């Protein structure tokens, strides 16, 4: 089997994908039209041309603007259903999906509208495509901790539909420490916790995510490599990093894919996983991310398998399910 065939054949879990970041321009136009909302682009090509980012903020500005056309439960359903179809094509058999409720509730959309649309797509993904999924609710870190606390309160009645809380949006200047209390409350309420850290922000933010937020996984975390003591901690604690190679390239976290550290992190024993982050904006879904690192970093068959195994080990599914997928990978 060639490396390409192996990548396609591997069952994979996706642990870092923002549902608002899977919004393809074609669907954006369709939903804008039916909701009678003007968008500042004339064509799909013009939208894609605007995807010319130089850092995280330049991306986020466009990403939040795109989300403005999502109004009805059906819109959130269509968005998530389109992503699940991509999962099926890429043999992603389990996914843990971020959503940003504040992006929608701040525009007057009910929390319930967002959650019901996403949940219905998750249910259909299981019955029609055999794909399992969890939802992870992210707090926008450029907003206040008080706003995050309000969002947590809104989520409590839906606790059984949300596996974890996370932290995303503009990293630099908004350290994990800002959200210590809301994460403590979330953990007390029984949510698992994750946080974006060490994408653009320094290794200190990864330390804070571990020590103050007490996360179960770090999202991105690629800048951890700058701190050897932190590296030892991640390795010893088997702390998963949900790495997003095409995202890092598109947002200039790395200059070219040959410079990406995912291979070095893997070789040093860090539990790294491969993920798409915002695939509609960054040029590819799960398999595209695998193809890009394979081409640039020349990973071996065993390393490709290890990345897929890591994705299940780091997932929030039960141990029996993990072992059953891992066995399938080893048998390939
Ligand atoms: N929201 C969506 N994608 C993000 C990323 N890569 N970093 C921080 N916040 C995000
Ligand atoms: Zn992300």
From TrEMBL:
Similarity-based family: Belongs to the metallo-dependent hydrolases superfamily. Adenosine and AMP deaminases family. Adenine deaminase type 2 subfamily.
Record-marked site positions (Important for catalytic activity): 220
GO molecular function annotations of the record: hydrolase activity
Coiled-coil boundaries: none
Its biological purpose: Catalyzes the hydrolytic deamination of adenine to hypoxanthine. Plays an important role in the purine salvage pathway and in nitrogen catabolism.
NCBIfam families named among the record's database cross-references: aden_deam, PRK09358.1-6
Cofactor: Zn(2+)
CDD domains registered for this protein in UniProt: ADA
Pfam family, one: A_deaminase
Keyword Zinc: yes
Amino acids binding substrate: 278
Cofactor remark: Binds 1 zinc ion per subunit.
Protein name in UniProt: Adenine deaminase
Taxonomy of the source species: Bacteria, Pseudomonadati, Pseudomonadota, Gammaproteobacteria, Moraxellales
Residue positions of the active site: 199 (proton donor)
Listed EC numbers: 3.5.4.2
Keywords, ordered alphabetically: Hydrolase, Metal-binding, Nucleotide metabolism, Zinc
Domain Adenosine deaminase span(s) in chain numbering: 11-330
Residues binding Zn(2+), per UniProt: 16, 18, 196, 277
Highest taxon above the source species: Bacteria
Entry keyword Zinc: yes
């Amino acid at each position: 089997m060639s490396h390409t065939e192996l990548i396609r054949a591997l069952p994979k879990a996706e642990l870092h994908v923002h549902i608002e970041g899977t919004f393809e321009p074609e669907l954006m136009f369709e939903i804008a039209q039916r909701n009678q909302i003007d968008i500042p682009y004339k064509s799909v090509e013009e939208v894609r041309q605007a995807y010319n980012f130089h850092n995280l903020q330049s991306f986020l500005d466009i990403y939040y603007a795109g989300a403005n056309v999502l109004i009805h439960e059906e819109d959130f359903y269509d968005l998530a259903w389109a992503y699940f179809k991509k999962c099926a094509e890429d043999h992603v058999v389990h996914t843990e999906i971020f959503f940003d409720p504040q992006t929608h509730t701040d525009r007057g959309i009910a929390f319930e509208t967002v959650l019901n649309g996403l949940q219905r797509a998750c249910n259909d993904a299981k019955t029609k495509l055999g794909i399992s999924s969890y939802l992870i609710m992210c707090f926008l870190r450029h907003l206040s901790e008080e706003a995050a606390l309000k969002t947590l309160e809104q989520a409590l009645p839906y606790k059984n539909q949300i596996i974890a809380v996370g932290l995303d949006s503009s990293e630099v200047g908004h350290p994990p420490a800002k959200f210590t209390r809301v994460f403590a409350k979330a953990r007390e309420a029984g949510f698992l916790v994750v946080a974006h850290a060490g994408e653009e922000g320094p290794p200190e933010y990864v330390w804070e995510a571990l020590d103050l937020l007490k996360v179960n996984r770090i999202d991105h975390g690629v800048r951890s490599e700058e701190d050897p003591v932190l590296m030892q901690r991640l390795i010893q604690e088997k702390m998963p990093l949900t790495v997003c190679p095409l995202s890092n390239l598109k947002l200039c976290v790395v200059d070219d894919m040959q410079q990406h550290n995912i291979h070095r992190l893997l070789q040093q024993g860090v539990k790294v996983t491969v993920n798409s982050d915002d695939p509609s904006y960054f040029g590819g879904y799960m398999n595209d991310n695998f193809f890009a690192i394979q081409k640039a970093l020349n990973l071996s068959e065993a390393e490709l398998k290890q990345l897929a195994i890591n994705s299940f080990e780091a997932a929030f599914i039960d141990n029996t399910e993990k072992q059953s997928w891992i066995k399938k990978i080893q048998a390939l």
